[in-house]
Amino acid sequence: MASTDMTVVILADGSNIKGNIIAAGMDGYIIRDTTSSTVMKVPKLTGTYNSADRSTKPNVHNNMYTNDLSREKEAYRRLQGVHGIANCLKISANGLVFEFYTNGDLEDYIKHNPPAPWKQKMNWILQILDAVIACHKIRVLVFDIALRNLMLDDDMNIKLIDFANSSLLPLDQVTELMDEDGYTAEMDLLHVTNVIYSISR
What is the pTM (predicted TM-score) of this model? Predict the structure, then answer.
């Protein structure tokens, strides 16, 4: 019987992914664990599966993706317990495990549902502001603040996700919130205003 090679998504430890890929970003995949109410963000790693010997050989270009999640892992370690941030349940070599939010993200919710009452919109706006301010207090610049990165929990409250491009500034400094590329807290707030406009329409 002839072998068939096919490209598969793999974990950092070289094993094949178990679960359904429900989203893909620039730096990783989101995998839904069908046996629990969790999702896992993993680096965008692939391998070649050989059906003859049932082996998987990692792609030679995988190393360019592994560092993308290391920054996000450090961000979630610092953000542990911060109100308004997605609940990260586990950080491992393979990726980040999160609570699964059945209401999805705010972008899809707005797109597929009737306009929310103004009171609900105001709650969302205030929750986003509170979460970003909480990040700034522990010297984290969020960067990627967008409707697609605002999850809705069971009570329709906002939970920020995606800190792959965030900046973690030294906790022992009292300087202005600015990273080495010149990104500032004010630029975070500019992204927040764009989100507020989208919610308010």
Answer: 0.87
